[in-house]
Design goal:
Elements lengths: L1 H19 L3 H12 L2 H14 L4 H27 L3 H14 L4 H14 L20 H4 L2 E11 H11 L3 E4 L7 E10 H12 L1 E5 L4 E6 L2 H7 L3 E6 L5 H11 L4 E5 L4 E6 L1 H14 L5 E23 L7 E3 L28 E23 L4 E18 L6 E23 L5 E15 L5 E14 L5 E17 L9 H4 L1 E22 L44
Length: 566
């Protein structure tokens, strides 16, 4: 007996000492803390916090070593900057910002360093289709006109005089009106003179070659007769071709434009100025969007509380404290002189079980999900299962008859946690996120066995800086059950029913907490927005002077140029 007691006490002491002795991971974290290896200490204490979230000392040391590690990386960034290594300083600063995102000094220093390392914007290449148009040489358009005065001269005479002075061959359409013109050209160029006449008298010009100029009224019939039409196919790289097609039709009012949704191409047919305007507009619309990485931590908290109390008639397998009132098997009855044995009846009294139970659970499930997407495109995350939902429609038995025949089909609805994130990047680097968080579950059955859903939904728009964290909470679903069990007829008796019945109250609460931290992976491509000269719509009066001046273009690849028949 003494040996067994000594062995038992020894085992208890050994277990107690083993529980009090720190684990291997805790010892490694303490050694890293004493060596001031802050990065290693952050990694080790992070593991300790995940393993034992209830220990506050791990939480305190984890945040403390994060602050010390951030200050260490900030000091290294200053040293790298003094040494002239700005790339290394940027890496150290980004690490410090991740460790201590609330430090305003680190954030400002990081923003300034990024501005210093930002490359100077290079001017984009001249937008436009790779087509070679017949254009006059630059020296012809820039020939000066020193002094020419016309007072009431017919318009064809003015045009011929300009052509003779500048050594050009002129072809005047017979429908050009002989309108008297009073104008003075002094210290101007041929380009300016032609633009002025085209605007004032409704003309358009076309160079057949470097020395031959055609002048005609600006009408659809004359343009169709003298003007060449070109067809060019643009490949859309970064956006959808259908969106670009809608922009072209609404702004340039093109008559002949089509798209191929599979190849993401747009084909434009029109005059030279229309194709040029379409090329400039496509170059400003089809740009590379910014790319964003959103780090999302999903925390699900489940709190349930179960309370049971009261007395319950015992049955096999019922847990609780049993208090049975049973007679002794060998009971001796001595009636005495007054009572006889026939005056006694022995019965087994029912066993009663005392129910005193309280159960509380606090479950936490943490998931870390990175979502990488481009601005304007939603990133969708689904956690849960798909539930079939019946959908009934009525169709007629015969054509033209009443819709009386039911046809039932099934659609699937995702039940669980659904999250949609749509980012947008601003010019100053801020990131706006449109967030939709929906938590749903099956709450029961409705008419015809159709499922009934319980849904909690949050829609909000937040604007954050890179590496800044936002918390979204409030998706709470609560269920309360109250059950009373007892003998039939007695559970409703005051006082007695409360003593001889069992009460069960269960409360379940689920809450979803989402942490969002955006990171800018790639900024938006730089775009220089410029005014675009809109050509006159076909069939209407000109709203702007026609484009007759050359635009430098790269050589046309073989097969890209195609001219439709006139």
């Amino acid at each position: 007996m003494t040996r067994r007691l000594a062995w038992t006490l020894g085992m208890v002491g050994l277990l107690a000492s083993a529980c009090a002795y720190p684990s291997r991971l805790e010892r490694e974290a303490d050694r890293a803390f004493r060596r001031q290896a802050w990065d290693e200490a952050v990694a080790l204490y992070s593991r300790l916090v995940q393993q034992s979230p209830e220990r506050l000392e791990f939480q305190t040391r984890y945040w403390w070593v994060r602050l010390r590690a951030a200050q260490t990386h900030l000091l290294r960034a200053h040293q790298a900057e003094r040494a002239g290594d700005l790339e290394r300083a940027l890496v150290e600063l980004e690490t410090a910002a991740d460790l201590d995102p609330t430090n305003a000094e680190i954030q400002q220093y990081l923003q300034d360093l990024r501005q210093r390392l930002k490359p100077a914007p290079t001017p984009p290449p001249a937008p436009g289709p790779t087509l070679q148009f017949t254009t006059p040489p630059e020296e012809v358009l820039r020939r000066p006109i020193t002094n020419m005065n016309f007072s009431g001269a017919p318009l064809p005479t003015v045009l011929k005089s300009l052509a003779q002075v500048l050594h050009l061959q002129l072809v005047v359409d017979p429908d050009v009106p002989s309108t008297p013109v009073t104008v003075q050209f002094a210290d101007t160029t041929l380009e300016q003179a032609l633009t002025q006449l085209a605007r004032n008298y409704g003309l358009f010009f076309r160079f057949l070659d470097a020395r031959t100029l055609v002048v005609a009224p600006d009408t659809p019939e004359k343009r169709q007769r003298y003007q060449d039409y070109w067809m060019y196919t643009f490949r859309i790289e970064y956006t959808r071709a259908a969106n670009v097609l809608q922009v072209l039709r609404q702004t340039l009012r093109l008559d002949y434009v089509a798209t191929d949704p599979q190849q993401e191409t747009i084909t434009v047919v029109g005059a030279r100025d229309q194709v040029e305007a379409a090329a400039r507009l496509i170059a400003q619309v089809d740009v590379a969007p910014a790319e964003v990485l959103i780090h999302m931590d999903i925390l699900e908290i489940n709190r349930s509380l179960l309370q049971q109390y009261g007395l319950q008639v015992a049955s096999p397998g019922v847990p609780g404290v049993e208090s049975a009132l049973q007679p002794e098997p060998k009971i001796q009855l001595d009636p005495g002189p007054i009572l006889s044995r026939s005056d006694f009846a022995l019965v087994n009294l029912p066993s009663l079980v005392a129910r005193l139970l309280k159960q509380s659970t606090h479950a936490r499930l943490l998931q870390s999900v990175p979502v990488r997407t481009v601005e304007g495109v939603p990133g969708r995350i689904r956690f849960g299962s798909e539930i079939p939902v019946p959908q009934t429609t009525f169709v007629p038995f015969a054509t033209g008859g009443p819709a009386t025949q039911p046809i039932t089909s099934f659609i699937y609805r995702v039940i669980g946690l659904n999250i949609d994130l749509t980012p947008k990047v601003h010019e100053n680097g801020d990131i706006t996120i449109q967030v939709i968080v929906e938590s749903s579950s099956v709450a029961g059955q409705g008419f015809g066995g159709a499922p009934v859903f319980s849904t909690s939904r949050i829609e909000k728009t937040i604007r954050l800086r890179p590496n800044e964290t936002s918390l979204i909470a409030g998706l709470i679903r609560e269920q309360l059950r109250d059950v009373i069990e007892g003998l039939p007829g007695l559970e409703s008796v005051p006082l007695l029913g409360g003593l001889l019945s069992r009460h069960s109250r269960e409360r379940e609460e689920n809450e979803i907490i989402v942490l969002l931290t955006p990171y800018l992976v790639r900024p938006r491509a730089p775009v220089q927005y410029q005014a675009i000269e809109v050509p006159a719509p076909s069939g209407g009066a000109p709203t702007a002077p026609p484009s007759i001046f050359p635009i430098p273009q790269p050589p046309t690849p073989p097969g890209d140029r195609e001219k439709p028949p006139r």
